Amino acid sequence: MISSEVKHLLIDKMNIISQPDKKDICLVGPINLPVQLDEQVVHFHWYTWLVLENTVTKEEILDSLATYDLASLQQSSILVYGNFKESEDALIRFHSICHTGDIFGSKRCDCGYQLRQSMKMIVDNKSGAIFYLANHEGRGIGLFSKSLAYLLQQEGFDTVEANTALGFKDDSRSYDEAIRVLQALRSKQVTLITNNPKKLAALKEYGLVSDKHIPLWGDKSDYNSFYLETKVQKSGHIPDKETIEA
């Protein structure tokens, strides 16, 4: 059982986000997080969240923490920079976890490049947030399934064909949780860093997106050119250097 002293230190940094007909979300933070970004150390505020299966109090969450087996699961988090709540111009990125690209630096995709570049853009803008979405691996199919999809891609399937051949949709990601957390942290409009119109549509549905977005292309190579072209041709991504209104 967690002591009352420890609970006192943590309770104020926990926020239960409730919405009718949806599971509660427990948002934890902010946590000071110094990050090495190229040649400089940048100080971010870090948050994590947990979707609750049952309606419980903050105290009950802490008392049951050791029984949740959270290490066997994935939790999403947010990296916030500047006065995110009050700034007039805030950039955000909904970044889908990519084990191979973000951690290992794989050249089969552009995910690692997009993550680091988005962080730099947000720092330069002086306000923004990276939403790191843990259940989005492989556009929602999970890491193990993604490895099977990669084997199919080595046999000539494109990224869309590989997912559908395994019985999945091309893209099964949902942005509902992230948007609910965004609303808890900020009520003003945001500008989304993305090439994906589905992300723009999800934000626009909640009235949180401005009349523009910022595209993010780069790190194209012989290893990922077919992948990037498929995202435009089959997944509807906004082509490189094309500017449209959200």
**Number of E strands:** 8
- Principal-axes geometry comes out as globular
Counted up, domains total: 1
Structural class: alpha/beta
Radius of gyration over all CA atoms, rounded? 19 Å
Strand order of the largest sheet: 1-2-3-4-6-5-7-8
Average pLDDT taken over every residue: 84
Task: Summarize the amount of helix as a percent range.
Answer: 25-40%
Q: Give the CATH topology.
A: Rossmann fold
Oligomer: single chain
The CATH architecture assignment turns out to be 3-Layer(aba) Sandwich
The CATH superfamily label reads: GTP cyclohydrolase II
- Termini separation comes to 49 Å
- Largest sheet geometry: 8 strands, mixed
Topology (elements, then pairings):
Blueprint: H1 4-11, E1 14-17, E2 25-37, E3 40-51, H2 58-64, E4 77-82, E5 91-96, H3 99-103, H4 111-125, E6 127-133, H5 137-140, H6 143-154, H7 159-165, H8 176-185, E7 190-193, H9 197-205, E8 209-214, H10 225-233
Parallel strand pairs: 5-6, 5-7, 7-8
Antiparallel strand pairs: 1-2, 2-3, 3-4, 4-6
Helix pairs in contact: 6-7
